[in-house]
Amino acid sequence: MKNTLFAISMLGATATIFAGSGKEEVFAPEPEIGATISTGYMTNYVFYGVDFGEDAVWTGIDYTINELPIPVDVGVWYVNPLSGPGQDDELDLYASIGDEFAGFDVALTFTYYIFPELGSDDTYELSLSVGRSLGIVDWSANVVYDFEIEGWYYETGVSKAFGVCDSVDLVISGGVSSQNDYFTNGFGWNHAFVQASLPIALRSNVTLEPYVGGLFALDALEDIQDDIIHGGVSLSVSF
Question: Which of 5, 40, 108, 202 has its CA 20 to 30 A from that of 75?
Fold first, then answer.
């Protein structure tokens, strides 16, 4: 399963950063149909603070339907960790509606998780994401309910983009999460995290983004895993 706040919105967050930083003036405009193809590598596949495998290669296709009263985003995402804990491949199918309400960016996302190698344990969840610029930093929060686990996951964080040059930003983010009957019984603080990414606009519709992050296990995870440093790189092409 992927981290909805960061992994599932990796492309969307990058697009938002570039939309607000004038990067579209660097290259000639490209025709757009609302689709994005992406791929990447992660040293650790981190889902809601838990390491589900190492040396993970992933790919995804995302399409935004803008002709409806509220934009609808649909897509598929596949990851295959090659070593470490878990090592089970995963296929995510998702649909999301989102718009701006009262100055907040709000999105409601349904995700269905399939585990082809396991052949079982499929699950599905509903998440509500809210975000807003606070001027100095951008704030976001995410609430998730898993219908099979019957558990809740909560996450909030802030991010800040710094312009390195016309086609490169440095994005620093961090936050904290908690859970209730998700990984462990009852409520508990899950993990804290920090991350630095470097979105590079190779063209107006092509983005290369390396990143490095730190994950620090709190009460709910300290008996499950140690703190980890992880990183990776993604390449996305929009049409």
Answer: 202
d(CA 59, CA 127) in angstroms, rounded, equals 22
Degrees to nearest 5, angle at CA 153 with 149 and 158: 160
Q: What string of pLDDT tens digits covers the 239 residues of the chain?
A: 544 333 333 333 333 333 333 444 445 455 578 899 999 999 999 999 999 999 999 999 999 998 888 889 999 999 999 987 766 799 999 999 999 999 999 999 999 999 988 777 899 999 999 999 999 999 999 999 999 999 999 999 999 999 999 999 999 999 999 999 999 899 999 999 999 999 999 999 999 999 999 999 999 999 889 999 999 999 999 99
Q: Are 213 and 193 in contact (CB under 8 A)?
A: yes
Q: 């607000």: which residue's tokens? A: 20
In 3D space, the residue among 114, 179, 122, 173 whose CA is nearest the CA of residue 147 turns out to be 122
Q: Which two tokens stand for residue 129?
A: 């994401």
**Does 2.40.160.40 match the CATH number of domain 10-238?**
yes
Q: Find the DSSP H helices in the chain.
A: 10-19
Q: What is the DSSP secondary-structure string of 116-183?
A: TTTT---EEEEEEEEEEE-SSSEEEEEEEEETTTTEEEEEEEEEEEEEEETTEEEEEEEEEEEEESSS
Residue 142 and residue 156 in contact, taking contact as beta carbons nearer than 8 Å: yes
Q: What is the pTM of this model?
A: 0.84
Report residue 180 as tokens: 């209730």
**Spatial distance between the Cα atoms of 158 and 175, rounded to a whole number of angstroms:** 6
Please answer whether residues 88 and 115 qualify as being in contact, where contact means their C-beta atoms are separated by less than 8 angstroms. Answer: yes
